[in-house]
């Protein structure tokens, strides 16, 4: 069995993180627009992918998991935090 090139693994991690951050921002920016549902489904499809990449990164070696776990946390915070300010935010 041929070993996987470390640069290929690194590029896979970078691509997954870029996809994760992009889907989170797309879900946030599409709020209230026509394609909001598609953006949300895309985000919820990419979220487990980034979670799996984080688990795989734990097995690959030290240091690889840090960027993946940061991306996972950033994705969750981006879609849950309300950045609209007091006049546009939901009130109780």
Question: What is this structure, in a nutshell?
Answer:
By secondary structure, the protein is an all-alpha fold. The protein is 72% helix and 0% strand. The chain has helices at residues 6-29, 36-60, 64-80.
Q: Span between N and C termini? A: 60 Å
Percentage of residues in helical conformation: over 70%
Rg, Cα atoms, Å:
16 Å
The secondary structure category is: mainly alpha
Major sheet attributes: none
Helices and strands, in order, run as HHH
Strand content: under 5%
Secondary structure layout:
Layout: H1 6-29, H2 36-60, H3 64-80
Helix pairs in contact: 1-2, 1-3, 2-3
Structure description:
By secondary structure, the protein is mainly α. It has one domain (7-80). It is 72% helix and 0% strand. The chain has helices at residues 6-29, 36-60, 64-80. Helix 1 packs antiparallel against helix 2, helix 1 packs parallel to helix 3 and helix 2 packs antiparallel against helix 3. The longest helix is centred in the middle third of the chain and has 25 residues, at 36-60.
Task: Based on the model shown, name its key terms.
single chain; 92 residues; mainly alpha; 3 helices
């Amino acid at each position: 069995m041929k070993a996987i090139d470390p640069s290929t693994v690194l590029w896979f991690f970078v691509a997954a993180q870029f996809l994760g951050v992009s889907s989170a921002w797309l879900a946030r920016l599409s709020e209230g627009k026509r394609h909001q549902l598609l953006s949300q489904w895309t985000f919820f499809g990419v979220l487990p992918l980034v979670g799996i990449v984080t688990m795989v990164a734990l097995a690959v070696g030290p240091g690889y998991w840090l960027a993946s776990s940061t991306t996972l946390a950033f994705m969750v915070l981006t879609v849950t935090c309300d950045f609209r300010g007091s006049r546009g935010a939901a009130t109780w």
